[in-house]
Amino acid sequence: MLKFYSTRGEDDPFTYLLPEEIEKTAHDHQLKILHHLTSDGTAYMRGEQLNNLTKESFDQYMKLHLETCEYKYILGYGLHGLIILTA
User: pTM here?
Assistant: First the structure.
């Protein structure tokens, strides 16, 4: 995993940008950030646990995720990010 993150390049079939790089790119193109969030948070680490939750427990988990997914300091926790921009 560490090798992947330290050797990324434009020719890679899968690439990523850090949250700061995404925000800089948006700024460079005069785009306004409406929302910048982690779309999956830590779900990838809790797959089996989440699959076994009751509906009530899952609803509580989703409430927590939706309340915290835009916290800037946890954007990198998830495997996937989402940024919504406007001109």
Answer: 0.76
Q: How far is CA 36 from the centre of its chain?
A: 8
- Among 14, 66, 2, which Cα is nearest to 40's? 66
Q: What is the SS3 assignment for 33-64? A: EEEEEECCCCHHHCHHHHHCCCHHHHHHHHHH
Read off the DSSP letter of residue 14: S
Sign of CA dihedral 65, 68, 71, 77: negative
pLDDT tens-digit map of 51-87: 999 999 999 999 999 999 999 988 888 888 999 999 9
Rounded percentage of the chain residues whose pLDDT exceeds 90: 59
The residue type of 44 is: Y
